[in-house]
Amino acid sequence: YLFGGIAIVSYAAKISTARGYVGVALPLGLLLLLVIRWCMRKWLVRSRASGRFTRRLLLIGSPSAVEYLHENLSNAVGAGYRPIAAILPGHSLRSPTGQELQLPVVSVSSELPTVLNAIEETTADAIAISAGSHLKPRVIQELGWELQDRGVSMIMAPALTGVAGPRIHTQPIAGLPLIHVSTPKLAGIQALAKRTFDIFGATALIALLSPLLLLIAVSVKLSSPGSVLYSQTRIGKNGDPFSMLKFRSMQPNADQMLQALLLAQGTSEKPLFKVENDPRVTRIGRVLRQYSLDEFPQLFNVLNGTMSLVGPRPQRDAEVALYDHYAHRRHIVQPGMSGLWQVSGRSNLSWDEAIRLDLYYVENWSFVGDIAILFKTFSAVLQKDGAV
Questions:
Q1: pTM value?
Q2: What is residue 107's DSSP assignment?
Q3: Treating both helix axes as pointing N-terminal to C-terminal, what angle do 137-150 and 112-122 enclose, rounded to 10 degrees?
Q4: Residue 256: helix, strand or coil by DSSP?
Q5: How far is CA 291 from CA 23, 288, 294, 311, in A?
Q6: What value, to the nearest 5°, has the Cα angle with vertex 326 and ends 325 and 330?
């Protein structure tokens, strides 16, 4: 704003502005703006984690909806909402599983006076109305008027899951605030932009890392007999198989030993074929895996178009055979070297959580999101959290 304002004034008033200002102020101002906003966000998240700058939230809805909201908001401390109590209009005090809700239930009535009394008793700063609230439109309208007088916010929490902000558009029609959810697409200009970014990014990384790649190749060759690179068939976009490259980190006969090891640890029927304390891994391979250095040859997969820098991790055909119907949606996009799964816990995540993250990426892809994941990848690799 400052840069634009000065430029407009200088042009309108015919004031001579130094070229150095034009060349430095805009990029420097944008950089400082991003850095300061990032620092402020980090400070705010830390403050909210310690209980500051949070809003006390009263949840209204069915037991399942309240449970879902409570779980997700409690895990997202940085959002600044702290669920403190619940109202379950027309429902019992127990959850659908028969267990007591973790939140105190202050009422099971949808009457306006009851709701207002609950707000007063809990000293809530905001209320969230979700599915199964059984509140009539007229009651919700009157509740909004009452909350306005009390300085309490009202939040409508529809039963939408796994949808990012850019896909949601609110449009008032006939007095109704209709929520439109756009269909996810990675085609046309978006697909071209992603592919162009992959090509330039992979080329730059290969050129920058070439000395390290050579050093790793020599280390693998000298550490144990066998080839430097390991090629394994994985399932890619649209379910098509391709050969994924890695630096070899295991013994040459590792594939023949896999099934026996999975049977021994009782995980042969699970989609993630991971062996704990894997005896097949070589000494140099253990170091490569800790820092994900064995994955670098996949940059050539990115160049030939079988992989992307960011996307769901490709899996073996035997693992894909264990997918349920919706897990196959991972194959709508190109598999990636890194993704939400990798920056959110890697192998520490359960299979269901990993699939949820991959499907979220597929449903909500964005160019900015890819860049954010790449930045988080460096931190996840350095921390070695969940590396196998």
A1: 0.69
A2: E
A3: 30
A4: helix
A5: 39, 6, 8, 19
A6: 120
